[in-house]
Write a structure and sequence with these properties.
12 strands; D-Maltodextrin-Binding Protein, domain 2; WH_DNA-bd_sf; alpha/beta; five-stranded mixed β-sheet; LysR_HTH_N; single chain
């Protein structure tokens, strides 16, 4: 196997086309320089240099080898610094899972903050419901989740990012849109509903049934994506409970109203991660979230 010292010797001669000047640049004498290049050529199996008493030139094989050798040396020189930056969390890759509603609001601000504070961290973004996020965190496929969950496994730590109101999405022409007062919880009794899925959006589903006496015979659709729910409301398929951040989405024919008899800011969005993660970039971002 050839060594980096042999490659450095070859590159020095190739760049100077003179053994004496190359030896001087490397702070060594010519005999050991010549031996290093001879060892390299024996390993490669071809002559990399043509030399005589008057001049040194590169062979065609030497020219090809030089291109790769310069890249190799640059990578070798940069490797220790890269390793230190990755270990410190200044560089690296962070995979983030997020719910659709967080994509409407806080996700953009979080991405901006990470990019400004840690420009060396590359972000991978994946839209998924909270249950999928927890599965992916457990299996190491994502590092950080932005979701809604009241209960998490013991290996998951979390930080509250946002608490917001629960709103009702109402279509054009519906009687509740024309009320001259704020909504009350009993206003939705007997209305067709578009609900969050009990299996795929469990936390939001549990939140709704905790605060409203849902008649499941009036549930027309159970789905997991907020934007789909809002589009169904626009097409007059029912009413939908959504986080306030979803009102940032402008869908023609849909209006959003709050409940006067519902506690303010009951919908929580949390950052979630595996406490056993060894990703230094994650530790830096968690510190940023907590600050």
């Amino acid at each position: 196997m050839y060594t980096l010292d042999q490659v450095r010797c070859f590159v020095a001669v190739a760049e100077h086309l003179h053994f004496g000047k190359a030896a001087e640049a490397l702070s060594m004498t010519q005999p050991p320089l010549s031996r290093q290049i001879q060892k390299l050529e024996r390993f490669v199996g071809v002559d990399l240099l043509d030399r005589d008493n008057k001049r040194v030139t590169l062979t065609a094989a030497g020219e090809a080898f030089l291109d790769n050798a310069q890249v190799l040396l640059a990578m070798a020189d940069r490797a220790p610094q890269d390793a230190r930056r990755i270990a410190s969390g200044q560089w690296g890759r962070l995979s983030i899972g997020f719910t659709a509603a967080s994509g409407f609001g806080i996700l953009g601000s979080l991405v901006t903050a990470i990019e400004e504070n840690f420009p060396g961290i590359d972000l991978d973004l994946h839209e998924m419901v909270t249950g999928e996020q927890l599965e992916n965190i457990a299996e190491g496929r994502i590092d950080l989740g932005l979701g809604r969950s009241d209960t998490t496994p013991s290996f998951i730590d979390s930080e509250l990012l946002l608490a917001e109101r629960l709103l009702l999405a109402i279509p054009d022409g519906h009687r509740l849109h024309d009320l001259d007062r704020p909504l009350r919880k009993d206003d939705v009794t007997g209305e067709p509903l578009i609900m969050h899925s009990a299996t795929k959006a469990t936390s939001f589903y549990d939140l709704i049934i905790r605060h409203f006496p849902i008649d499941h015979h009036m549930v027309k659709h159970s789905i997991s994506q907020v934007l789909t729910m809002i589009n169904l409301v626009a097409d007059n398929h029912g009413l939908a409970f959504v986080p306030e951040s979803a009102s940032l989405v402008s869908v023609p024919g849909v209006h959003f109203k709050a409940f006067e008899d519902l506690s303010e800011e009951i919908v929580e969005l949390k950052a979630m991660w595996n406490v056993q993660s060894k990703n230094p970039a994650l530790q830096q971002v968690v510190s940023l979230l907590r600050s």
